[in-house]
Amino acid sequence: MRSLTLPAPAKLNLMLHILGRRADGYHELQTLFQFLDHGDELTFTPRSDGQIRLHTELPGVDHDSNLIVRAARQLQAASGTALGADIQLLKRLPMGGGIGGGSSDAATTLVGLNHLWQTRLGEDRLAQIGLSLGADVPVFVHGHAAFAEGVGERLQRVQLSEPWFLVIAPQVSVSTAEIFSDPELTRNTPAITVRSLLAGGGRNDCQPVVEKRYPEVRNALSLLNKFVPARMTGTGACVFGSFPNKGEADKVCRQLPDHMPGFVAQGRNVSMLHRKLAKMAQEVNA
Ligand SMILES: C[C@](O)(CO)[C@H](O)COP(=O)(O)OP(=O)(O)OC[C@H]1O[C@@H](n2ccc(N)nc2=O)[C@H](O)[C@@H]1O
Ligand SMILES: Nc1ncnc2c1ncn2[C@@H]1O[C@H](COP(=O)(O)OP(=O)(O)OP(=O)(O)O)[C@@H](O)[C@H]1O
């Protein structure tokens, strides 16, 4: 049967404010998401026997807990399809990096299988299913840079400049749950409007807690700060800085020590997943 290969791009939280804690323990946030033109890649092949089989193993994640498998099963349940899928994953994004690898894999699975299985669920319904898998999944389903509120599910599209970023991935995996449960986390940042945010400013409220717990993250920030203002994304561990062009970002990337691998990627307002879907639609209509 026909296979479909789709990208699962990374995201950056250009800022992340924590406004408070809800009764269910989750935190109210304000964050600005932009995608990177760098990410994982998934290949889906439909099966007629209804089984979901992911053929790529990830260290520390068993088959049935992988967000890809969970997303596929949720879509089966929501749509009632009798089809299954063989899935291959090309993993490029560091896990526990704050660049949304697992969430993006889940979103690409929802969008990709909805297309391949012709289950025809709308984007809002896919985002709703995605939210039950992780707070970051909806923005990847919609695929547009956004100002997010709530736990990340109330999205407002934004048009941002698309600079080149150098992202450093310190060799540690930071647990999101661990950072959100730290008593020292700032949880009372006043709400700001998207307009005042886009005029400049913002910070990452998780950064001081992560810097304190993870010297690797602290060191990556101070190294990058020598060249451009550096900030952490999500709950870490990755840190990023923006450059006016690719050449300057590449130059700093080449100077990184072995224990601090990095990559250069462009910020994108429309995700690679949605660019690819638009291209496929054009080819069909041509
Ligand atoms: C920090 C961000 O990456 C910003 O984009 C996200 O809000 C985190 O999204 P995620 O990795 O998809 O996180 P989830 O898998 O939904 O949550 C992991 C854990 O982090 C805590 N958590 C997460 C999101 C949130 N708004 N408040 C929380 O308190 C909860 O303890 C939760 O059990
Ligand atoms: N397909 C997947 N890819 C990566 N991690 C997965 C996947 N499925 C399940 N996981 C689990 O989810 C955890 C978080 O993974 P992820 O790479 O999304 O972290 P993250 O980049 O910090 O996410 P976020 O930015 O959303 O906080 C991993 O440590 C792993 O245990």
TrEMBL record:
Gene3D superfamilies: 3.30.230.10, GHMP kinase, C-terminal domain (3.30.70.890). It is an enzyme of class 2 (transferase). ATP binds at residues 94-104. Residues 66-143 form the GHMP kinase N-terminal domain. Its EC number is 2.7.1.148. Belongs to the GHMP kinase family. IspE subfamily. This is 4-diphosphocytidyl-2-C-methyl-D-erythritol kinase. It comes from Stutzerimonas nitrititolerans. The lineage of its organism: Bacteria, Pseudomonadati, Pseudomonadota, Gammaproteobacteria, Pseudomonadales. The gene is ispE.
